[in-house]
C-alpha cells in the first residue's frame, strides 16, 4: 500500500497520480489564495474532454447538487461531477491539485488519509467494488472566478467537502469527514485520519474539574450525527459546558480542537474563520456523551459536540463494523453560513 509522506512536497501515488502540494513556493507567495484556486480549477477543466467538462460543471444555484453529499458509499448515494476512477493520470493529477489548492497542507493530508482508509476497507472486504480511493467525485458549481462566488465539491464515502469561494473569502461548511477503519497501518506506520479530533477532545475533557465535567457530560446517549447529511437548515439547542465557565487554558484547548475542522481549508480562510470562532468562544458549548476513557493511540468511543453562534461540530463513533473506535463520522457546520449563504445573499 502506498503512503503519503508528510513533507511540504509530497508524491501522491495512492490515487494514481503525482501531486505536488507545494509545487512552487515563490509562485504561491505572488498569488492570492483565490487566484491559486481559480488557476488550479481552470487547469483541471482544461484537462477534461467536453463530455467530462459538462459533467464537472453545474449551475451555482443548483440546490439539489449542493445537498447531494453523504457519508455513505457512492453506490448508495450517487454523486454528481467526475469520478477519479474515470480520469487518466494527468486528469487525476489536475483534480487533486485543485482540491489541495483549496485546502491547507494538513487539511489535504487528512483528506488523502480518509481516501486511503477506504482503500483499506476495500481490500479487507475482498476487493469490494463499493469502496476504494478512486470512488471520489469532483464538481464545480458556477464558473471559477476571483470575484464572483462559485463552489467546489469533492467527496465520496466518509468525505464531503463543500467549499464556497467568494472573492478572497472561503467557506468550508458543511463538511463531513469520517473514516473506516479510523486506524490502520501503512508501511509499518499507524495512520489515524481523525486521531487529533479524538485525542484533543479527550484531553479537554480530562482538563475539566469535577464540576465542569458534570456539566459537560450529558445524561443521555447519542450515537450518531444530529445534523448530518440531509439535515441542512435544522438547528439544535446548545447544551453541556459553556466556555465562559472554562479557564484560559481550557478555552485554548477548545479552540485548538475546533481548529482540526476550521483548519482544513487553506490558511488565509482558516485564519479568518478561527478569528470569528475565537470571538465567539465565550458563547461556545462543549458536551460529551459516552465513555470518558480511551487507550493511548486509539480513538474515543464517545460522541461529543461543540456548538457556538456560528458553529456546530459533531464527532460520532459508529457501531457498524463492531468496534466504534474504528468507524467515525464527524460533521462541521456554520448554521448561519453553510454553503457560504451569508457571502452570496443578494
Describe this entry's structure for a reader.
The chain is an alpha+beta fold. Strand 4 and strand 5 form a beta hairpin. It has 11 helices and 14 strands. Helix 2 packs antiparallel against helix 5 (about 90-100), helix 7 runs antiparallel to helix 9 and helix 9 (about 250-260) runs antiparallel to helix 10.
Entry keywords:
single chain, two-stranded antiparallel sheet, disordered N terminus, 11 helices, alpha+beta, about 350 residues, about 35% helix, globular, 14 strands, twelve-stranded mixed sheet
What layout of secondary structure does this protein have?
Blueprint: H1 25-30, H2 33-47, H3 50-56, E1 57-58, H4 63-66, E2 82-83, H5 89-102, H6 105-124, E3 136-141, E4 150-156, E5 159-166, E6 169-171, E7 175-179, E8 184-186, E9 189-191, H7 195-207, H8 210-216, E10 241-242, H9 248-262, H10 267-279, E11 285-289, E12 303-308, E13 311-317, E14 328-333, H11 341-344
Parallel strand pairs: 1-3
Antiparallel strand pairs: 2-3, 3-4, 4-5, 5-6, 5-7, 7-14, 8-9, 10-11, 11-12, 12-13, 13-14
Amino acid at each position: 500500500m502506498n503512503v503519503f509522506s508528510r513533507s511540504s512536497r509530497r508524491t501522491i501515488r495512492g490515487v494514481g497520480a503525482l501531486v505536488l502540494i507545494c509545487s512552487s513556493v515563490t509562485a504561491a507567495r505572488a498569488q492570492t489564495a483565490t487566484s491559486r484556486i481559480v488557476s488550479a480549477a481552470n487547469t483541471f477543466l482544461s484537462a477534461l474532454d467536453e463530455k467530462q467538462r459538462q459533467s464537472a460543471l453545474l449551475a451555482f444555484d443548483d440546490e439539489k447538487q449542493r445537498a447531494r453529499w453523504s457519508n455513505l458509499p457512492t453506490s448508495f448515494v450517487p454523486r454528481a461531477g467526475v469520478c477519479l476512477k474515470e480520469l487518466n493520470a494527468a486528469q487525476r493529477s489536475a483534480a487533486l491539485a485543485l482540491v489541495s489548492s483549496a485546502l491547507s497542507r494538513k487539511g489535504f493530508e487528512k483528506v488523502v488519509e480518509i481516501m486511503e482508509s477506504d482503500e483499506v476497507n476495500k481490500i479487507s472486504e475482498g476487493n469490494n467494488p463499493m469502496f476504494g480511493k478512486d470512488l471520489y467525485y469532483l464538481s464545480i458549481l458556477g464558473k471559477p472566478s476571483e470575484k464572483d462566488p462559485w463552489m467546489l465539491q469533492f467527496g465520496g464515502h466518509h468525505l464531503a467537502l463543500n467549499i464556497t469561494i467568494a472573492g478572497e473569502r472561503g467557506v468550508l461548511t458543511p463538511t463531513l469527514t469520517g473514516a473506516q477503519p479510523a486506524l490502520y497501518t501503512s508501511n509499518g506506520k499507524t495512520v489515524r485520519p481523525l486521531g487529533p479530533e479524538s485525542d484533543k477532545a479527550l484531553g479537554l475533557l480530562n482538563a475539566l474539574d469535577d464540576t465542569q465535567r458534570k456539566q459537560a457530560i450529558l445524561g443521555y446517549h447519542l450515537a450518531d450525527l444530529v445534523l448530518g447529511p440531509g439535515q441542512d437548515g435544522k438547528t439544535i439547542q446548545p447544551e453541556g459546558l459553556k466556555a465562559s465557565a472554562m479557564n484560559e487554558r481550557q478555552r485554548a484547548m477548545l479552540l485548538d480542537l475546533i481548529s482540526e475542522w476550521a483548519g482544513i481549508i487553506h490558511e488565509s480562510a482558516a485564519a479568518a474563520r478561527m478569528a470569528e470562532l475565537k470571538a465567539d468562544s465565550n458563547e461556545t458549548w462543549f458536551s460529551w456523551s459516552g465513555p470518558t476513557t480511551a487507550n493511548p493511540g486509539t480513538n474515543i468511543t464517545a460522541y461529543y459536540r461543540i456548538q457556538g453562534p456560528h458553529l456546530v461540530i459533531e464527532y460520532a463513533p459508529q457501531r457498524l463494523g463492531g468496534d466504534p473506535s474504528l468507524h467515525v463520522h464527524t460533521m462541521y457546520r456554520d448554521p448561519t453560513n453553510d454553503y457560504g449563504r451569508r457571502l452570496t445573499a443578494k
